[in-house]
Amino acid sequence: MIDNNSVFLVSGGAKGITAECVIKLAQRYQCKFILLGRSTPEPEPVWAEGCGNEAELKKRIMEYFQAQGEKPTPAMVQKKFQAISSQRAITTTLKAIEETGGKAEYLSVDVTDAIALSEQITGAVERLGAVTGIIHGAGNLADKRIEKKSIQDFETVYAAKVKGLENLLRCVPPKQLQHLVLFSSVSGFYGNIGQSDYAIANEILNKSAHLMKQYNPDCHVVAINWGAWDSGMVTPEIKKAFAERGIDIIPVDVGTQMLVNELHPSHRDSTQVVIGSPIIPPAVTLDPQLCSYRIRRHLSVDANPFLLDHVIAGTPVLPATCAISWMIHACEECYPGYCYFSCKNFKVLKGITFNHTLAKEYIIEIQEITKHGSESIEFQTTILSKTPLGKTYYHFRANITIVRQLPEVPMYDSVDLTEDNNITITGKDFYQNRDSFLFHGAAFQQITRVINISPEKITTKCLWSEITLKAQGQFPVKSYNPYIGDLSTQALWVWLSHYHQEVCLPGQITNLEEFIPVPYNEPFYVSCEILNKTATSVTANLMLHNSDGKLYSRILGAKAVIAPMNLHKPK
To answer: Residue 352 in contact with residue 358, Cβ under 8 Å?
Structure first.
């Protein structure tokens, strides 16, 4: 618990947003702070006193240099202006903390200089007391596209965050800490154009927070992934650009209060939080040239634990929906800022079975087909493999469309949630207990119940409980959820079993569209409309929606192939 005896060691804490956060903490707890910064304190010149106007102050700086017999350059004037402004900011921060009843001391030291840092902190601890908390807010920027970055750019950005944290923890034994607060960034969480080094450094802070919490469970550890603040660095032009991209700005009073809230004991188990909007790259006119890509991947059951919940005839088989997610997410990776909208003409050519037929590697070939300005891109995607003798096997194929902005969510007008009690089985009883029922394990369950069923249609209520990232393996849930995708098609299996005592396997899909993510850990509905049934196949449309009919996604022209009744039994 923070009180007036708490002592925080704060990097980058005498100016800017970190200083604002420190002042808010002081107002709440009247605690003590050792503020670290690179600015060297120096008395303000008499000729600058009382001058708060930037233009007037720069004029006085020019006059000062001229009086010294020097010819001032813009760079000389700006450097002196920044030095005076920096000292004023430090003085203001120290005064604001003192006025709250707290105590603060400023140390001019670079957190990347381990020796100097240790020496300075030792003296401050003697005056203020042992450090009980660290707030690591120091950071540098060198925004450039990665091909234009230098090694020095990377080192400057990386060292302040990563080396700085390492040095702080060398000065204060981790077991002594009650609080560790790391100022990370949404750039580390979402990525951002021109900030590869900054994103890497901040993501290391995120992972360091989890590691520190693991080894020091009694310490309140949190990495706060901040978005953009409404500070002096965010000009009206930048605000406008952010607004056009749907990026919210954090008001200073709101953000500082959020920090105070995060340090309340009730949040001590929240090791990483994101406070800010996703960073969406700005729209640009796409290069009209159509590109192609080849991405290789090794697959194994060990790397994908969910496969043990999708076993057919005793052998794990890759769900068709996982192949779809593989294609979708590969296309999205080619164009950050674009999101999946539709998958057309999906075909299962030769499934992937995890037995002796498993290839050493699989290749996804991506060919751009069309680009529509900056609005959308369509790809043809194919998943294939090659034998040691060079023979090619084609496994899945589809056309994927990604867009800058998803269309308005449509409604499903034929919602019918009238219960008929024709099928009384519920929940887990649908799975793995009868020859004609569902073979799927926990990762792909569950149909909660069948609302109604007729020769033309079946409506099911479903709820998918989120599985761990480790269980998801190489097929994590992103814009498309392959586990819910598979679950949604199970309605067709239930219909086929009920009316024809048959089972089926996926064959192809004419069009799959997603408007908003299907929720998990909460109910949703699948309305399956039967279009055609033959001796060898069944075709249907599947609508995923809420109780009001708002569509999450729809699968049009889903054709399944009639399979042997015992396909889920071990051979």
So the answer is: yes
Interatomic CA distance for residues 193 and 144, integer angstroms: 8
Question: Can the peptide bond before residue 272 be classed as cis, meaning omega within 30 degrees of 0?
Answer: no
State the residue for tokens 């609080």.
179
Beta bridge partners of 185: 226
Among all chains, which residue has been given the structure tokens 């899909």? 509
**DSSP assignment letter at 426:** B
0.70 cut: is pTM over it? no
What are the φ/ψ torsions at residue 79 (nearest 5 degrees)?
A: -65, -45
Q: Which DSSP category does 551 fall into?
A: E
Q: To the nearest whole number, what is the mean pLDDT of the chain?
A: 92
Which residues have CB under 8 Å from 150's CB, separation 6+? none
pLDDT at 570: 46
Number of H helices, E strands in the chain: 13, 20
CA–CA gap between residue 141 and residue 144 (Å, rounded): 9
Task: Say if CB 399 and CB 509 are below 8 A apart.
Answer: no
Give the mean model confidence (pLDDT) for residues 236-259: 84
CA dist., res. 486 & res. 482, Å (int):
6
Strands 551-563 and 503-514, sheet pairing: antiparallel
Q: Which residues contact 397 (CB under 8 A, 6 or more apart)?
A: 345, 346, 347, 349, 380, 381, 382, 383
How would DSSP label each residue in 358-390?
Answer: --S-EEEEEEEEEEETTTEEEEEEEEEEE-TT-
Distance CA 334, CA 89 (A): 44
Strands 220-226 vs 524-533: parallel, antiparallel or unpaired: unpaired
Number of neighbouring beta carbons within 10 Å of residue 262: 17
